[in-house]
Amino acid sequence: MKKFNIFALAILVFASNLVAQKSKIDDPKMDWWKEAKFGMFIHWGLYCIPSGEWNGKKTTNIAEWILTDLKIPVAEYKNYANQFNPTKFNAEELVLLAKEAGMKYMVLTAKHHEGFAMFKSTNPFNIVDATPYKKDVVQQLADACKKHNMPLGLYYSQAQDWTHPGGGMYCKHWDAAQEGSFSKYIDDVALPQVKEIMEKFNPRIIWWDTPAEMTPAEAKKFTDYLAKYPNLITNDRLGGGVHGDLETPEQYIPATGIPGKNWESCMTMNGTWGFSRFDHNWKSTETLVRNLVDIASKGGNYLLNVGPTPEGEVPMPSIERLKEVGAWMKENGEAIYGTKASPFSQLAWGRVTQKAKGSNTMLYVSVFDWPKDGKLAISGLENKVLKAYPLANKNIILKVEVKEAEKIIDVKAVKQSTFTTVIVLEIKGKPVVNNSPSITSESSVFTDKIEFNLSENTVNGEIRYTTDGTAPTAVSALANGTISVNATQNTTVKAASFVKGKRVSAVSEVTYKIEKPLSPAYAGKPGIKYNYYEGSWEKLPDFSKLTPVKSGVVDNFNINERKVDLYYGFTFDGYINVPETDVYAFYLKSDDGSKLIIDDVKILGNDGTHGMDEKRLDVALEKGLHKISIQFFQHGGGQGLSLEWKQTGKNRKLVDKSVLSY
Ligand code: GLC
To answer: Who wins on pLDDT, 257 or 610?
Structure first.
């Protein structure tokens, strides 16, 4: 379902064709933004009036997409403007709420995909000319931001405008009012409005969205115009291969950040950006605080969304959470603002951020899982700890004991903060961390032999490992190249770095599972059987209870036999011919949900509404034919399904008709 992911793919393709652009990570214009770390996203437009329901029908999509989701006639949707009278909107209160939450910038939707401008524009479909309210919301927020010294960014949906001719290409038109040329829409609406918002409000950020449809030549019209604003920050969603200054992971936190890039995870507090009166699925404040800490520890910013109501108020559950986040930030903000990513590759129990203090370094250790024995063990840190204390109470000096590769901090006396407690370590010099070795192998399962590689970052270090479950010591086996071990049961590999006979890193471990290869089945005809269904689901339905619209045989797991693009499903059933007894990795990729089943017992799930997402299953198979089936459904937005496989030591390839039968 997620529109953006499919667009992100398109950008990647574009980007690889373009001359590499200079990375903007060290551009001084980004300094304030990097210091800020935490911002408020505000999705507000006409969609707050239907707030998830039109004509008795509820949208299953995010609330601001209701127009295209339910294919509301354009004229009827535009009529919502007559009802839009947000008299309770108070721009100053909103800015003060963001401040109270500890947020350091705000990004408001000046125009979303619905095409309605929240500012006075020459295009009449705007808040001043088309509503009884008649006041410019962007202007009010810009004034309040100025008064309170709050940097303002504006979101502008340049490539989708569902109510203007030519602006709804991506969503496919359902109303004659949408017919027209995209390029003309760019020249007549998008470019002039971008000029309007730049000239009137001079925002610090322009937050583009959904790059689809934009050609490099069209995108250039925007970048040419904006060249006269050298301090303006833009994101990566303009399209046409333009990178912008920041990457924008949507609704997730990249596992290892995005090294070498400025990035900002944008996330909702419930499940939708625009106000929905049906979505009560609010994240806990603990989750919000920990997301912020997690993002900062990976070097990014957090743009957290609110969706005001038709009256112009932020929903109460959002206000409560923002105030709680703010209370935590008041005590612990030092661990967030102006910090850099953690020097530790991973910590099971918490997150770390860092900041230079003269020639020394402050490490902010946010403890998610508090140690039961009151002893916090930090592994692999070479530097001398000059001082340790809880951030919320700097007067409590904590004892630090050095034991092997661990610095053990006695936190018994620390009163834990709500949501997460931060311990500060002032260390001598720049951090030097011996991360525990990474253990990698082609597969997580094996039949008779495990093969793995070990690597680490320690200067002059060596890796020692065990495969019998014991902790590695200075005399354990020494890693050298690919290690191959015969085994007859599940096997745990443990490894650590050593320097001059002393362990200097934490111990890392991976458990490999032994599998008996599944036995083969009987032969059939080439291809695979499919059933095609129509319907709208957010999870895989029980297809066995539904009647297919169409059935037949296809060459592989493709979805080309569908009759519609937005809401449908497929099941595929047949056999796969396994060439040799071995461990095979299957890669199931889909947008939206899918499930792979082998021999009725091995199941790989990739369910739910999401963008193109890949899941992997390792399975040992005997030579011969094995039962294989896939279930799949599509729910609006981007679509796609593919299955690839890889025999250990060989190349990855598509599961196609050369190996499929039914
Ligand atoms: C998506 C959606 C949109 C939302 C945005 C926020 O691209 O189209 O509704 O505004 O993400 O990141």
So the answer is: 257
Nearest CA to ligand 1 atom 4: 273
Distance from residue 34's CA to the centre of ligand 1 (Å): 22
As a whole number, mean pLDDT of residues 420-430 equals 98
Using the predicted structure, report yes or no on whether residue 4 has a pLDDT greater than 70. Answer: no
Q: Which helix (H) or strand (E) holds 193?
A: helix 191-201
Which atom of ligand 1 is least distant from the CA of 65?
9
Count of CB atoms within 10 A of residue 546's CB?
Answer: 15
Average pLDDT of the segment spanning 114-140 = 98
Protein residue whose Cα sits closest to atom 5 of ligand 1 = 209
Ligand 1 atom with the smallest distance to the CA of 266 is: 12
pLDDT at 8 over 70: no
Contact 517, 621 (CB under 8 A): yes
pLDDT of residue 356: 97
| Helix, strand, coil tally for the chain in percent (to 5) | 20, 30, 45
Counting the structural domains of the chain, the total is: 4
Q: What's the 160 CA to ligand 1 centre distance in angstroms?
A: 11
- Between the CA of 443 and the centroid of ligand 1 the distance, in Å, is 36
Q: Is the CB of 114 under 6 A from ligand 1?
A: no
Domain that holds residue 368: 350-427
With respect to residue 25, please indicate whether it lies within any of the assigned structural domains.
no
| pLDDT score of 458 | 79
Ligand 1 atom 7: residue of nearest CA: 4
Q: Which of 42, 108, 273 to mutate to test the pocket of ligand 1 (most atoms within 8 A of CB)?
A: 273
- In DSSP terms, 625 is beta-bridged to 521, 577
- Average pLDDT of the chain is 93
State yes or no: pLDDT of 22 exceeds 60: no
Quick check: CB of 515 below 6 Å from ligand 1? no
Nearest CA to ligand 1 atom 1: 4
The answer to whether residue 187 scores a pLDDT higher than 90 is yes
Q: How far is CA 177 from the centre of its chain?
A: 35
pTM, two decimals, is 0.82
Give the pair of three-digit tokens for residue 623: 């030579």
454 and 330 share one domain: no
What pLDDT is attached to residue 173?
A: 85
- State whether residue 83 is helix, strand or coil: helix
For the segment 625-641, the average pLDDT, to the nearest whole number, is 92
Q: Is the CB of 236 under 6 A from ligand 1?
A: no
Nearest-CA residue for ligand 1 atom 9 is 64
CA distance 59 to 72: 11
Q: Is 655 in the pocket of ligand 1 (CB under 6 A)?
A: no
Last-in-domain residue among 312, 335, 358: 335
Residue 476 clears pLDDT 80, i.e. is over it: yes
Nearest to 577 by CA among 479, 656, 477: 656
Alpha-carbon distances, residue 44 vs 81, 272, 273, 276, 553 (angstroms): 13, 12, 9, 11, 47
| Ligand 1 pocket check for 210: Cβ under 6 Å | yes
In a shared domain, residues 129 and 210: yes
Looking at the structure, tell me whether residues 442 and 420 fall in a common domain. Answer: no
Identify whether 14 is part of a domain: no
Q: What is the mean pLDDT of residues 411-421?
A: 96
Name the one residue in this structure whose structure tokens are 């291809």: 527
> Within 10 A of 652 (CB to CB), how many other CB atoms are there?
10
Q: Which atom of ligand 1 is nearest to the CA of 305?
A: 6
